[in-house]
Amino acid sequence: MKKNKLITIFLFINGIAFTQSTNLKVKISQKASSLESKVIAWRRDFHQNPELGNREFKTAEKIASHLRSLGIEVQTGVAKTGVVGVLRGAKPGPVVALRADMDALPVKERVDIPFVSKAEAEYNGKTVNIMHACGHDSHIAILMGTAEILASIKDQLHGTVKFIFQPAEEGPPEGEEGGAELMVKEGVLENPKVDVVFGLHINAQTEVGKIKYRPKGTMASSDWFTIKVKGKQSHGAYPWMSIDPIVTASQIILGLQTIVSRNVELTESAAVVSVGQINAGVRSNIIPEELIMNGTIRTLDSKTQDLVHSRIKQISTNIAESAGATADVSITKKTLITYNDPVLTQNMLATLENVAGKENVILTTAVTGAEDFSFYQAKVPGLFIFLGGMPKGKQVSETAGHHTPDFYIDESGFVLGMKAMSELTIDYMNMNVKNSNK
After folding, report:
1. Cα separation of 124 and 101, whole Å?
2. Is 169 considered catalytic here?
3. What are the C-alpha distances in Å from 309 to residues 259, 302, 328?
4. Is 103 helix (H, G, I), strand (E, B) or coil?
5. Residue of 103, 244, 411, 423 marked catalytic
6. pLDDT tens digits for range 231-261
7. What DSSP character marks residue 261?
8. How confident is the model at residue 16 (pLDDT cuts 50, 70, 90)?
9. 150 Cβ partners below 8 Å, 6+ apart?
10. For residues 373 and 180, is the Cβ–Cβ distance under 8 A?
11. Contacts for 343 with CB less than 8 Å, ≥ 6 apart
12. Catalytic residue of the set 101, 148, 169, 410
């Protein structure tokens, strides 16, 4: 009899908790829908007034002003122009960080929309046209809307939310630090200490209403390499008197292509090695003494990354030596692997399916583009998802890619973005409130 009574009490308490959780999610959904026009207006304003990395001054002011209006604690000037907001829930629990990036790109827009960007700015010493050609304007607006939703249910939050509006995701200007790496260095994951971080990226080739995700390596690391090939200069009419760095470099480039095709275990992990720049010589009838080539490496796990780095050095130096030349190889790690913690991903999958519908949550393939969200994930468990921004009925072949002049986003997916970020936050808090010491 006593056992049955305990079971009844347990079911009653859990029923109350389920009802409260359901009611809270209804509130989130209603609030997100009511904010749609406001969020779209923010996005269009940011789109029409883009700013490059480490120069997002007006963008930061608008974000900070909005967060303050919600009663959120605000810190500005983080990592140059970053804005951080802290929303402390009424009840103790974990600290959840939500991140949006703010910077635009040196791309001239040619999309026929009323809020087209006509802005110009200085980029590495040149005046260029700029636009939000990767969707960061959408990310800002969605997170501002998410902040308003979560602030409206502050009294029901089991924990603290840290809103991270990050500059320079596309990289800082030459000679400057910036982006997620600098934000982490300046303590964005501390005071209060962050337990988990969530982020999203709008995707112009994913249909509105859908969310894509992937556990483990989701976006590639981005490493840059430089190879200096030094030979012997001669008149172009007497090549036998030279050690030709151009011919040598050509053989090195062909050799580099065998790394992915012959060394990387492609059934386990993908990789990319691309040479994007070659500089040598001053005129057509002189074989130069030196050639410099630059390129990029993309990998999805550290084992493959180490292998590719090693083979680039081996191939370059050995081919150069066989020609009587020398090759000096330098490799710089720029962006880490965007690694979705597999346990966290699995735990939050039901949340994504709840907000989008199970049929609209898609396990995707890895992306060889890079994201500096990875610097947060290197410190705390993180989940980075892709939000649909392609108009319904369109085909991928009909849409422009990111970082292009024709880049276009369907704004009707913003409500889903707000709901996803909000519900990931409250579900994580509710799952982990008992394990939190905060």
Report:
1. 21
2. yes
3. 10, 10, 13
4. coil
5. 103
6. 999 999 999 999 999 999 999 999 999 999 9
7. I
8. very low
9. 87, 157, 161, 422, 425, 426
10. yes
11. 381
12. 169
